[in-house]
Amino acid sequence: MYSESTVFKNICPKNLENEQALKIKQNLNWNPLVEETKIFNELNINGYNVTAANLNSDDEDDKVCGYQSFGDELVEQNLFDKSASYYCSVIQIAYEQQELGLDIESEWEIEGEWERIRELVQLKLELEAELEAELELGLALDLVLPKIKIFDEFTDYGLVTTTGDGVAEVFGLTDAQVSEFVVFVASPEAITNEVSYGIFYGMVLNLEANDTTKVVIFGDNRNVVQNMMVCRTYSLVSVPTGANMVGRVVDSLGVAIDEFEVINYDKNALSLIEVKAPGILPRQPVTEPLLTGIKSIDSMIPIGKGQRELIIGDRQTGKTSIAIDIIINQKNVPFLADNSLVYCIYVASGQKRSSVVNTVNTLRNEGSMAYTTIVAATASDSAALQFLAPYTGCTLGEFFRDNGFHAVVIYDDLSKQATAYRQMSLLLRRPPTREAYPGDVFYLHSRLLERAAKMSNGFLGGSLTALPIIETLEGDLTAYIPTNVISITDGQIALDKTLINKGIMPAVNVGLSVSRVGSAAQYSGMKQVAGSLKLEIAQFREIEALLSFSDDVDPTSRFILDRGLRLTELLKQPRNRPLPFEMQLLLIYAGINGFLDVLPASEVRLFETFLTGLMYSSIYRPFFNDIDAGIAIDVNVFDAILNEALYCFNTIAK
Q1: Does residue 441 carry a pLDDT above 80?
Q2: pTM check: above 0.90
Q3: Active-site residue identified among 283, 516, 541, 605
Q4: Are 200 and 223 contacting, i.e. CB atoms less than 8 angstroms apart?
C-alpha cells in the first residue's frame, strides 16, 4: 500500500531534482514520518513569522513563508489536515539551500499547487479506503477506523523502532494515553522483508522520555516489524457487551472465536474494560445467596450475590470443577420463586486450549451455555491478552449488573494473569519487587475485584459476583499472590490435596475456608438446618487426626467420629452434578439430626441416591414445590418423610 514512489510523491515537490531528493529516493530505510520531524524542527529553529500577507510579497523569503501560511489555511478548512503545511515546509527547506538552484517563482505557483493539494487529498482517501478493506481481518476495526488519520501530526502516529517478546518500542505517539488502543499498519519495509501485510493491534502501557512509547502487542509479535506505522485510535481499550454475547466463546478483545457467525453488536456502544468500581452509596449489603449446588459450600461457606469469594488450592485439587458446577447449577435456580437467572462469565486466562475446549463441551452438554459467556486467552496467546482477559470478563458481567440482572464472573486463574503481568512489566523495564512482580501487582487484582457489587434498588438492584481462582504451591497460602488476593476478597474456599488422596471430593478444607458474609447470605431454611454442620465436621477432622497417634477413644469422641464419618460421606459429590437447593436441605437435615446414624457409612451415598429419586417422584414432588426458602422449614414434615424413606430403603431398596 505504501510503495516508495507513492510516499516520495507525498513529501517531495515537483522537479526537485537535487542531492537531498535523490538521497531520499535511493534510501530504502527512509521514512516520511522521521523526515517530517526533522523538517519541522528546522522550521522552528529558523523562527519564520508566517502570515497570509507574505504570499503577495516580492521578497523570496516572505514568499516561501507565504506557502507555509497557505498550508495552514488549508488545515483550518479541513481540506488536508497537516499535510499541506508539511508539503510547503519542504519547499522552504529546499529554498534555504540556495546551492540547489530552486526557482521558486517558476516552479511553485499558487494555481498549480491547488491541483497538487487535491491530488494528495485524493491519495489520502485512496489509502484509507485500502486500509478499510484490510480491516475485515479479525477484529471489526471499522469501529475505530474513522479515528485513524494516516497523515496527521506526529503526536498521533509513530514508528516502531524495536520489537520483541510482545513489546514494541514506538517513536512518536507522544499524545497517546495509557491503555489506549493502537493499530499497527504494515510499512514498505514490512513488505520488502516479505512479512505478510495486515493490521495488528496493541495497547499503550509506557509513556517514556525522548518521545518514546512502549506498546504491548495483541497476538503474534512476529507480525510487527521495525519501521511499521502505529496509529492512535483516540479511545481506551474497549470491548462489545450485551445480551448477544451470551452463549459465545470470545477472546480478550470480545471477538468471537467459536464456530458460529460473527457477533452483531452496537458499534457505538463499546464498554471500557477499565472503569472505576461502584462507590459506597450505589451499593447495598450482600444478603441474597448465590446457590452453587455444592452441599459443602451452600451449607458451610455460603456465597452471596455481589460477594468476592476466592477459590484457592494446589494443582489438580478441583478448583475449576467447583467453578463449572456453580455455572451448571444456575439452571436449577428458577425453582425458587424469588430468584432470577444468574448469567455466568467464565474467564480462562493462561489455560491450555484443550482444557478450554473440554469446559465448553461440558457446558454445552449440560445446557448451560445458554446463559454463559467464555472469555479465552489460552497459554499460547500473548501475555497481553492473558493480562487483559479478566478485565474483559468483568466488563461483560457489568453489563448485566448495571441493567438490573445478576451475573457471576469466574477468573480461572489470577495466578496466571499475575505471571503474564510480571512478564509484561519486566519487558517494559518496570522495576521488580518481591518475586520479581511489579509494585502494582496488588492494584492489578484489587481494581478488578472491587468491581463486584450488589447494587441498591435505586441502581436497579443488579449484582456482580466475583469468584477468582488462585493456584498455590504445596498448599502455601502465605505466598505473595495468594495473600494479596485473600486480603482483597470476602472469604476463601480452600481445597486440600490430602482430602483428595482420601477420596473426598470436593476437597474443601473446612478449617481454612471461610465466608465473611456468612449466614447473611443464606436462606432461613439452610441456616436452620446447617447451623452446627461446620462445627461437627471440624471436630471430626480433629479427632480423626488424633487417631493416628492413639486408638483409645472415649464414647463422646466415638460418637463424634461416627457422626463425622457419615457427614463426610454425605458431603461427597461427583463432578458436574450440582444438587438442587431443596434436596440439599433434606439431606443435610437427615445427617445433622441422626437419621443416617442407623446406616453404615458405606451406604450413605446409596441412600442419598435412593432419596433423591424418591423425592422427585410424582408422590413427593409437590412437597418440594411447597418449600419456601425464605422461611423456616417444618421439622415434623421432614421427620415424617425421612422416616418413611429409611423404611423403604431398608425393606425395599436393599
Answers
A1: yes
A2: no
A3: 516
A4: yes
